[in-house]
Amino acid sequence: MPVVKLAINHWPGYEFLFLAKEKHYFEKEGVRVQLVEFTSLPDVLEAYQSGDVDGMACTLVETLAAAGQARRQPQIFLVTDYSNGGDVILARNEIRIPDGLSGLAVACESNHLGGYMLYRALQKYNRTLADVKLVNLDQTEMEKAFRKGEVDAVVAYPPVSTSLLRDGQAQVIFSSANIPGEVLDVLVADKSLIDGKPDAVRAIIRAWGRAHKFHTRNREDSHQIMGRHMGLMPEEFAQILDKLKLIAPDEQVPYFEPENGRLLEIARNTHGILRQMGSLSGDLDISVLIAPASLHPTP
After folding, report:
1. Domain that includes residue 30, residue range
2. Alpha-carbon distance 276 to 129, whole Å?
3. 89, 154 contact by CB (below 8 A)
4. CA pair distance 149, 197, nearest whole angstrom
């Protein structure tokens, strides 16, 4: 039975992989999956780029960053969800809108989704990243910095955002709901795995689909299992999940169509924004980042 290592960090949409692990769906589908956990997206990306893992759960931003480095050949083989309020910019209560961040210290994972979110928030007020004091911290470090008063705002996601909002010291001034459909969460594998072991990739897709269906039929049990793994109460996990648009197994194929597919369009738009930011340079053939639609079962 093939073994596939996937790098992953805490995010509600990725927890379905842990649910699949808990329910032994991977083994039942004929693949062994090792979920290698990290505390931040930058660490996930580094594990993939260094060759320590076969793939990763990440956002479209990290996928494009990996492709831009040209150290490996990432391909998206599954879309888990898009964030619709799950990713947030939190600020001290006296700061009401992103425009109020001018001149203040903002913590984020600057070359990753956090930087993208902050750029898009400031862009709506005709401001740029140069208008704030950018502090590059991972999720755990930024929570500590915010609580100590070392930064005025953070770009965060659960469980860090949940923790900061729980005690009333911060408020949401911008979220992924303000840029609907842009923050896409995906599963990525190196092209060598997809070409060399397509059956293993198909098995991961089927196992994820089984976890998705289990959640549909057993929400309370699912929220307890996935919430516990994230350090959240089941009701907290359920509330966060409401801020995601989960992409069901039978909704996958339209994202992977080779011409005019949803994924191709979203990725091109995201790549253009990353170039505006200066995070990426040069042209990129986006189509090579998308695995064949044939990996997915026909609805």
Report:
1. 3-84+182-295
2. 11
3. yes
4. 49
Domain count, the chain: 2
CATH code for position 126: 3.40.190.10
Specify whether 239 is located in the same domain as 190.
yes
Residue 242 has φ and ψ, to the nearest 5°, of: -65, -15
How far is 68 from 54, CA to CA, in rounded Å?
A: 18
What pLDDT, in 10s, does the model give residues 64-116?
Answer: 988 877 678 999 999 999 999 999 999 999 999 999 999 999 999 877 899 99
Write down the H helix ranges in the chain: 15-22, 25-29, 41-49, 60-69, 113-123, 139-148, 160-166, 191-196, 198-217, 219-230, 234-241, 262-277
| pLDDT tens for each residue of 139-193 | 989 999 999 999 999 999 999 999 999 988 899 999 999 999 999 999 999 999 9
**Residue 144 structure tokens:** 């500590």
